[in-house]
Amino acid sequence: MSTDKTPADTTIGFVGLGHMGGPMAINLAKAGYTVHGFDLSEEAVAAAKAEGVVPVDSVAAAATGADIVFTSLPNGGLVKRVYDGAEGILANASKGALLIDTSTIDVDEARASATDAEAAGLRHLDAPVSGGVVGASKGTLAFMVGGREEVFAAAAEVLGVLGAKAVHCGDSGAGQAVKLCNNMLLAIHQIGVGEAFALAEKLGVQDQVFYDVASAATGTCWALNVNCPVPGPVPASPANRDYEGGFAVGLMNKDLGLALAAVEKNGVHAQLGKAAGEIYGALNQTDASGKDFSIVYSDIAEKSGVVKAGSAA
Ligand code: NAD
């Protein structure tokens, strides 16, 4: 792809039009790109079509003639499946096409994708995101990108349509590495914030008082200041709507699984990361799996015997 192409003469293939991929594909179409979208789900295709994405009937059709091919899929096995084979992206994309995988997958899987893509004469970036469905819809995602510097530069314009920020983290796999490390830290933070609220409550401290002090003191973090797990102090946090509409326990559990596989493989002494994996693994087996991951507070409060009027616990 020549970088001086305008959106109007740039064709984008988009494979995976789910919660994240759907809004991303739509934002690209709204920005003037021709977007050829494919998904196994007819509902997902119909929703994207209604907002300007051109439906195609196969992965191969999405890749054929595209300057850029995005993927947004649930796991690395599926990314490999749509890349490989006679009907896959690698066999059908034009030489020099830019592949951008926004799925969250294993670091080694991302590196293997990049190697395979380059062997097929294509360019590749791993570009996992943070910002969730709201960020995907509003075009305010943050991209963590791994791959060659010049390929990252070539993707700047299109990533700028989808996100507020794109950081080049290093060579292939580095985007996934940063994503997994961040989410392992986030899980630990969210559990810690939940435990601190439960202890404060047991000690007779009101949620608002603990929040006011800790959010401006050394306990400050996103899990407290933005994703506050108790209803009240942060009105927009999922705790105020029964933990609906945030980052699901199931997705956190998936990311922790990837992070802990890397912890094992690299011999990292990550006791809190492992504990977080056990906690979210257990929570994912309950009916909380679809709720925002800050619901871990409810579990902690319940097991701690915290009693509050009107409390979710
Ligand atoms: P999703 O399940 O909503 O969407 C995935 C889509 O892929 C589905 O529509 C599915 O039908 C489609 N699909 C599966 N196999 C396919 C195939 N072979 N060919 C074509 N389409 C296929 O998942 P999502 O929430 O959109 O997440 C996508 C990726 O983004 C995941 O890797 C996830 O970890 C990551 N992510 C999600 C969020 C979030 O808040 N949802 C946030 C950050 C990152």
Question: Can you put this structure into words, describing what you see?
Answer:
With 313 residues, this protein is an alpha/beta fold. Helices cover 48% and strands 13% of the residues. It has helices at residues 21-30, 42-49, 59-63, 76-83, 89-92, 107-119, 132-138, 149-162, 174-202, 207-214, 222-225, 249-266, 271-283, 296-304; strands spanning 11-15, 34-38, 54-55, 68-71, 98-101, 123-126, 129-130, 141-146, 163-170. The strands form 2 sheets. The chain has a 6-stranded parallel sheet, with helices on both faces. Helix 1 (21-30) runs parallel beside helix 2. The N and C termini lie far apart (54 Å). The model has no long low-confidence stretch (mean pLDDT 96).
Structure summarized in a few sentences:
This protein is of the alpha/beta class and 313 residues long. It has helices at 21-30, 42-49, 59-63, 76-83, 89-92, 107-119, 132-138, 149-162, 174-202, 207-214, 222-225, 249-266, 271-283, 296-304, and strands spanning 11-15, 34-38, 54-55, 68-71, 98-101, 123-126, 129-130, 141-146, 163-170.
